[in-house]
Amino acid sequence: DAGITQSPRYKITETGRQVTLMCHQTWSHSYMFWYRQDLGHGLRLIYYSAAADITDKGEVPDGYVVSRSKTENFPLTLESATRSQTSVYFCASKSMSSPTNEKLFFGSGTQLSVL
Amino acid sequence: GIQVEQSPPDLILQEGANSTLRCNFSDSVNNLQWFHQNPWGQLINLFYIPSGTKQNGRLSATTVATERYSLLYISSSQTTDSGVYFCAVGTSGGSNYKLTFGKGTLLTVNP
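Predict the joint structure of the above. Result:
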């Protein structure tokens, strides 16, 4: 049961470079999300997607781009990385099939350092 | 937006002790979940509990939506319970799947 997988697990990049973080889920969940986790801020929503080709901004979308051409993939791109984007990034997904169980499931995270 | 406050921020227990973690929120919710982040960073969903009470082994949770709080009970704590516990809520006003997270309670269980 692969579930939801993120890659890479760790990434070091330089200011100004483009970086793409990958997220893949095998559950055919409709909804997918990207969160970032920072000390003092907890988890904050960057972008989310309700289905393939449907995406929307979350709380902190500036500097990020997402796409969702296939249900199972939801990549997050930092177009021009900045030091303030150093963080741990979590992808998550949930099914829309049951109104009585809205559980959110997370990947293992990507630790990104921007030098 | 909705405010989510968790208490206490830190908690240190001896193995075998019981504990109660609290989550207060500032608006009506129809989605509330508890998560455990283990020392390796993995986030595990413990409960989906917008109202009522649920139990899973040594853990149980109660949400009193009308009073805007939820409690997570850990009984007979074990060292593997260590980590950060997050409460996350989705509001009744539409996009309840967009969760707002509290800042967490850091639990340390000593042997």
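Residues 70 and 96 of chain B are 17 Å apart (CA to CA).
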